């Protein structure tokens, strides 16, 4: 028989707390600072654990809190000029002035984004004379920069690539690849890529792993300036990879976040993507304009599916729209307008090519200076990889304990895997960096 | 053989297809009463004067760059946006238990909230937790929650087609019978598509049941300021629920009230029990953001933040918003008056009783088809019209068309 007492015992703590709260609120005030109340239990979110800081973006936040005047942020891949300042490209400023003068409206873009942008975005990657573009067998949608593109791509594959759940990432890969694909319901696997003994490309290991991938698996390839290692296959190696991937009948997912940034030449950096397409691979491709146009916070990117024909591209397009609509409805205009203006206005395009070239060159110079400075510090290690690696990042080879010392003792911020963003290195601080690296590695 | 050989052609999103069909119509008298964007009396998009002003400020400011925002967005935007929803002097804000995530428009805010709830709301897997959306509701609500993994999305009674008003008994009944912990998506004001909002007393009844039955409050606030012309009035329901002690989400859109449609400016305001719970929630929100868009776009957020945080600009914005709301109210009054003058069969009071951008005319699908095909007046199959598509120049034609349609088509 239920007594009033046992009924009270049956009430869970939440219920009783809500009743308590109801009494309080009817008095007119509710103060959660009533310490006796277990606020975790009274909250929907009591079971929510504290999420760990993002391994990459968390570095910047730790850097911001550091008060040392010599601190260096070599974490996130954002370009800095030789004074360590963010760099707004001149072509971007000019494009903005152009756009501002047009007094355009702010009506919603189509779900797939700004047509002027998506067309030129595809052209930039595939080349103006690409047969794919001529036959209209690609669909390119505007995305929220590279992450947004990968998110759409991963979810598209998850929904429509029923033949396989497996995505093979190079070992290592950009830290955010894994959670993006996992969240989309794909299974993450890896193929050998970086050889720590040479700080270079493990070509034979990669081929070996690729040869064992089940047919129709998805293979993620970094088009250029591999993140985090800066190690890219050479053209002859790309050719062999392309052949093997075709033999294994794998679906190729290219991530191209640094076109122009690697070698300074946009066509050279897109060579692998174009080669695969010429070889008959119907690839999917993510592009970002965060780095090569310095449009980081504007979130400009593209996702392309190369299809069999224009009809298939239309079907795929319709499904991409269905995917995009419940995430953010349609993409932001500002950055896409800027990028489109640059890509489609010959004068601006010319300036852009020069500026991209300039950024890549500064990085190449910093690599050389870092290597020289390390030698001058008296380091006996082989730092050739600093020069051989390409793009924004350098995989120093530093171990986590050494990274920790570098951060604690020198206020040099980088990711635990030993990756540094060369973009954060300047002629003013390269000496200090070399000294720090030498100190923790000697 | 293509990997995508089996990909079926998806049906286009209705509201965008409508706009496309309108574009291709050659009839000079055509009227677009479809998509929910404000139009001036000349039928043109309107970039708010205050927005133009702030854009100039941004362009001229050489200290600004295009660097990444933080994962959760621009802090000045998030806090000022939340203040707009909850009120400057909200006790919840003072108690440090309000946080926010800058998102890609209202859609993005709903998406983030939905993703979070699916992972963390009531245990770690809420795929089976019922999500209730009003009948009818914005067509994308269903998809947002379904794509976030919710498998059980149900309607709650809302629109009474016969009396052309709120089905309060049905609404309360569904609240009473919903499984505990169900999630309810509530329209903060200017219900889309019906334009029918609960009164204050009705909201209080809704809140009482939701509190008692431990239902989760998820407000969708896309029209604050746009409904009555007054920001505070339009936020009454949201603020009332806060005073009732709810932990809740409010997805805010600045697309309409700032006219910043294509900049994708949204904010997910989170009211938690206390700052500790809030902190943990925000940390998990970051993880969801990171795999979706990493960090949000800066332009629109900067614009809104500068406006909200600069007194003269804030005042100017409120004026701009009021002028949009006033024009809509004028069109409502006009349309109703004309239909009455024409003695169009039926009652048309709902046109002026409803609020916000949309009106649920009550026209049935056959009548809608007639309007489109015979009169080149484009509206949603549900009978929803966007009042902003009406102008002093086309309102006679629209009124006559409605009249003709109602008389000739049943």
Automatic annotation (TrEMBL), chain A:
Keyword Methyltransferase included in the entry's annotation: no
Molecular function GO labels: L-aspartate:2-oxoglutarate aminotransferase activity; pyridoxal phosphate binding
PROSITE patterns: AA_TRANSFER_CLASS_1
Cofactor(s) needed for function: pyridoxal 5'-phosphate
Record-linked InterPro entries: Aminotransferase_I/II_large (IPR004839), Asp_trans (IPR000796), NHTrfase_class1_PyrdxlP-BS (IPR004838), PyrdxlP-dep_Trfase (IPR015424), PyrdxlP-dep_Trfase_major (IPR015421), PyrdxlP-dep_Trfase_small (IPR015422)
Origin: domain of life: Eukaryota
CDD domains registered for this protein in UniProt: AAT_like
Enzyme Commission designation: 2.6.1.1
Alphabetical UniProt keywords: Aminotransferase, Mitochondrion, Pyridoxal phosphate, Transferase
Cellular component, GO, one term: mitochondrial matrix
Subcellular location: Mitochondrion matrix
Main location as per UniProt: mitochondrion
Catalytic activity, reaction form: L-aspartate + 2-oxoglutarate = oxaloacetate + L-glutamate
Domain Aminotransferase class I/classII large, first and last residues per copy: 70-437
Pfam families for the chain: Aminotran_1_2 (PF00155)
Record GO biological process: L-aspartate catabolic process
The family this protein is said to belong to: Belongs to the class-I pyridoxal-phosphate-dependent aminotransferase family.
Description of how the protein assembles with itself and partners: Homodimer.
Other remarks in the entry: In eukaryotes there are cytoplasmic, mitochondrial and chloroplastic isozymes.
Name of this chain's protein: Aspartate aminotransferase
Automatic annotation (TrEMBL), chain B:
EC nos: 2.6.1.1
Domain Aminotransferase class I/classII large residue range list: 29-402
This protein's name: Aspartate aminotransferase
Cellular component annotations (GO), alphabetically ordered: cytosol
Biological process (GO), any one: aspartate biosynthetic process
Keywords: Amino-acid biosynthesis, Aminotransferase, Cytoplasm, Pyridoxal phosphate, Transferase
Chief place of localization: cytoplasm
UniProt entry tagged with the keyword Transferase: yes
SUPFAM superfamilies, per database record: PLP-dependent transferases (SSF53383)
Family: Belongs to the class-I pyridoxal-phosphate-dependent aminotransferase family.
Protein's UniProt keywords contain Cytoplasm: yes
Signal sequence annotation: none
Cofactor: pyridoxal 5'-phosphate
Subunit structure: Homodimer.
GO molecular function, a single term: L-aspartate:2-oxoglutarate aminotransferase activity
Other observations noted: In eukaryotes there are cytoplasmic, mitochondrial and chloroplastic isozymes.
Subcellular location field: Cytoplasm
Catalytic activity, as annotated: L-cysteine + 2-oxoglutarate = 2-oxo-3-sulfanylpropanoate + L-glutamate; L-aspartate + 2-oxoglutarate = oxaloacetate + L-glutamate; 3-sulfino-L-alanine + 2-oxoglutarate = 3-sulfinopyruvate + L-glutamate; (2S)-2-aminobutanoate + 2-oxoglutarate = 2-oxobutanoate + L-glutamate
């Amino acid at each position: 028989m239920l007594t009033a007492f046992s009924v009270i015992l049956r009430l869970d703590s939440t219920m009783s707390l809500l009743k308590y709260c109801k009494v309080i609120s009817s008095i007119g005030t509710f103060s959660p600072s009533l310490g006796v109340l277990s606020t975790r239990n009274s909250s929907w979110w009591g079971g929510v654990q504290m999420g760990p800081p993002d391994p990459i973006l968390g570095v910047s936040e730790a850097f911001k809190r550091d008060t040392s005047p010599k601190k260096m942020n070599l974490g996130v891949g954002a370009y800095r000029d030789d004074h360590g300042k963010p760099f707004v490209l001149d072509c971007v400023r000019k494009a903005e002035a152009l756009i501002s003068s047009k007094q355009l409206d702010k009506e919603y873009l189509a779900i797939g984004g700004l047509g002027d942008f998506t067309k030129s975005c595809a052209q930039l990657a595939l080349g103006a004379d690409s047969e794919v573009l001529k036959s209209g067998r690609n669909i390119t949608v505007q995305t929220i920069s590279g992450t947004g593109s990968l998110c759409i791509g991963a979810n598209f594959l998850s929904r429509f690539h029923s033949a396989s759940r497996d995505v093979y990432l190079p070992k290592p890969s950009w830290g955010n690849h894994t959670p993006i694909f996992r969240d989309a319901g794909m299974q993450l696997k890896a193929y050998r890529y970086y050889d720590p003994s040479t700080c270079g490309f493990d070509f034979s290991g990669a081929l070996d792993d690729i040869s064992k991938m089940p047919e129709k698996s998805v293979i993620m390839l970094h088009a250029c300036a591999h993140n985090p290692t800066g190690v890219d296959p050479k053209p002859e190696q790309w050719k062999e990879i392309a052949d093997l991937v075709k033999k294994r009948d794998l679906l190729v997912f290219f991530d191209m976040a640094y076109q122009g940034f690697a070698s300074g030449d946009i066509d050279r950096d897109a060579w692998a993507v174009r080669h695969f397409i010429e070889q008959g691979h119907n690839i999917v491709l993510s592009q970002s304009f965060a780095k090569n146009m310095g449009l980081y916070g504007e979130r400009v990117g593209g996702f392309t599916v190369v299809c069999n024909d224009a009809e298939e591209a239309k079907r795929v397009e319709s499904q991409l729209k269905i995917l995009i609509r419940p995430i953010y409805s349609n993409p932001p205009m500002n950055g896409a307008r800027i990028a489109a203006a640059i890509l489609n206005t010959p004068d601006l395009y010319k300036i852009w090519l020069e500026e991209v070239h300039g950024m890549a060159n500064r990085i190449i110079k910093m690599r050389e200076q870092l290597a020289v400075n390390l030698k001058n510090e008296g380091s006996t290690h082989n730092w050739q990889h600093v020069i051989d690696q390409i793009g924004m990042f350098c995989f120093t080879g530093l171990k986590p304990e050494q990274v920790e010392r570098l951060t604690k003792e020198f206020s040099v911020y980088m990711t635990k895997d030993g990756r540094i963003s060369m973009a954060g290195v300047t002629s003013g601080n390269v000496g200090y960096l070399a000294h720090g690296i030498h100190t923790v590695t000697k | 053989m293509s990997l995508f050989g089996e990909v079926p052609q998806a049906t286009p999103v209705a509201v965008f297809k409508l706009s496309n069909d309108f574009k291709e119509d050659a009839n000079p008298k055509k009227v677009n009463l479809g998509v929910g964007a404000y139009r001036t009396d000349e039928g043109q998009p309107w970039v708010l004067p205050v927005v133009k002003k702030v854009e100039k400020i941004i362009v001229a400011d050489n200290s600004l760059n295009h660097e990444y925002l933080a994962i959760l967005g621009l802090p000045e935007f998030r806090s000022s946006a939340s203040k707009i929803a909850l009120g400057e002097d909200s006790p919840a804000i003072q108690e440090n238990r309000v946080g926010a995530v800058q998102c890609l428009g209202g859609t993005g805010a709903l998406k983030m909230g939905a993703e979070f709830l699916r992972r963390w709301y009531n245990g770690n897997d809420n795929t089976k937790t019922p999500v209730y959306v009003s009948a009818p509701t914005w067509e994308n609500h269903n998809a947002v929650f379904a794509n976030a993994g919710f498998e059980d999305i149900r309607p709650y009674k809302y629109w009474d087609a016969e009396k052309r008003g709120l089905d309060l008994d049905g609404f309360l009944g569904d609240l009473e019978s919903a499984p505990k912990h169900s999630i309810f998506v509530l329209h903060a004001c200017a219900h889309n598509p019906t334009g029918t909002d609960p009164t204050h007393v009705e909201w209080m009844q809704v809140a009482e049941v939701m509190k008692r039955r431990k239902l989760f409050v998820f407000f969708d606030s896309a029209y604050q300021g746009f409904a009555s012309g007054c920001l505070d009035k339009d936020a009454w329901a949201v603020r009332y629920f806060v005073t009732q002690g709810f932990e809740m989400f409010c997805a805010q859109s600045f697309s309409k009230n700032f006219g910043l449609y294509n900049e994708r400016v949204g904010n997910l305001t989170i009211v938690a029990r206390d700052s500790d719970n809030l902190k943990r929630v925000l940390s998990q929100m970051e993880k969801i953001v990171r795999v979706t868009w990493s960090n949000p776009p800066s332009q629109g957020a900067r614009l809104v933040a500068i406006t909200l945080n600069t007194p003269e600009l804030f005042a100017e914005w409120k004026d701009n918003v009021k002028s949009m709301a006033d024009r809509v109210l004028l069109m409502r009054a006009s349309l109703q008056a004309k239909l009455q003058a024409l003695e169009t069969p039926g009652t048309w009071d709902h046109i002026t009783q409803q609020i916000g951008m949309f009106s649920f005319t009550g026209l049935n699908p056959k009548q809608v088809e007639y309007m489109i095909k015979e009169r080149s007046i484009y509206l949603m199959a549900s009978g929803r019209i966007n009042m902003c598509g009406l102008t002093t120049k086309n309102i006679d034609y629209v009124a006559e068309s409605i009249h003709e349609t109602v008389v000739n088509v049943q």
